[in-house]
Design brief:
The protein is mainly alpha-helical. It has 9 helices and 4 strands. It is 61% helix and 7% strand.
């Protein structure tokens, strides 16, 4: 989570209808808060249009008169014009707070989605490994049955022929100090003798753990163990629970500081115009009256 990400999310959501509506309601900006009313929606859109956000030069590139502004390093400024200074200030404060909450909820939601994706992918991988292991065990059992049937047939043939011990012909060659034995591999299997064949049958039948003999099971179990012991998801949850995102009241995607507050009340303007206009009319009345007397 970078500063640019936080700033971009803040700017993307500060003027959203959802956030502005909540800020308007919380600030009681309008006396009529019936948000289904068309007039209310028009007022809401006027508020959104009254908020201006634009990029400014960095602090070091221009001389600033505000001491508060000199300490800042952000690159955006927000202007808002409203006819009630206090309500306007309250609205901006609520808008800032609600925008931060919205950004926080978006980040947490995306973070949890990533965690859920990791968990889902790990679950899929574990299921795939389990299925592959089951297939390997099934294949081993089928191969084992086929081999036992074959060995029993060969043992029966050896017994019929009276071959108790191996009669496979071998040829020995000596080359210097080395000796080479040549075994004829095309000799029928029953020539090994029924004693050796029966012993092999016995050993195969007493095998207790087929996982030791099934092809690829050991490597698959290593992969399964690695996935089950993986702490990445646990670490991600720990980081989230101990980060600023877990503190709703203190989390800030961006800072908001009021640099200039100017009252711009229409009521005051109307009163001033009325006073000036009244003074001018009074002067005209006096002049006209004096002219009539003379």
């Amino acid at each position: 989570i970078t500063q640019n990400l936080l700033l971009n999310l803040y700017l993307d959501n500060i003027l959203s209808s959802e956030v502005v509506t909540q800020a308007v309601t919380a600030s009681k900006l309008f006396t009529d808060n019936n948000n289904s009313d068309k007039d209310y929606q028009d007022k809401l859109q006027s508020i959104i249009r009254a908020i201006k956000i634009f990029q400014v030069a960095s602090v070091d590139e221009k001389q600033q008169t505000s001491k508060a502004f000199e300490k800042l390093s952000y690159q955006y400024r927000l202007d808002f014009t409203f006819n009630d200074l206090e309500k306007g200030k309250l609205f901006l404060a609520n808008l800032h707070q609600l925008t931060n909450k919205k950004v926080r909820s978006i980040i947490i939601e995306n973070y949890n989605q990533d965690i859920n994706s990791f968990e889902y992918l790990r679950s899929l991988k574990l299921d795939e490994i389990n299925d592959t292991m089951q297939l390997a065990l099934f294949t081993y059992e089928q191969t084992k049955k086929q081999k036992l049937e074959y060995l029993k047939e060969q043992s029966q043939i050896a017994r019929t022929l009276g071959i108790a011990k191996s009669t496979i012909a071998t040829e020995n060659f000596s080359i210097g100090k080395n000796s080479i034995t040549n075994v004829k591999t095309d000799t029928p299997f029953y020539f090994r003798g029924y004693e050796a064949i029966d012993k092999e049958i016995q050993l195969i039948e007493v095998r207790k753990d087929p996982r030791l003999y099934a092809n690829g099971i050991i490597e698959l179990e290593k992969q399964k163990k690695s996935l089950e012991d993986n702490k990445n998801i646990t670490n991600l949850k720990f980081v989230l629970s101990n980060s600023d995102l877990s503190k709703e009241d203190t989390f800030k995607a961006a800072d908001f500081i009021a640099l200039d507050e100017t009252a711009n009340s229409r009521l005051i303007q109307m009163l001033l115009i009325a006073i000036v206009l009244g003074f001018v009319l009074s002067c005209l009345f006096v002049l006209v009256r004096n002219s009539l007397r003379t």
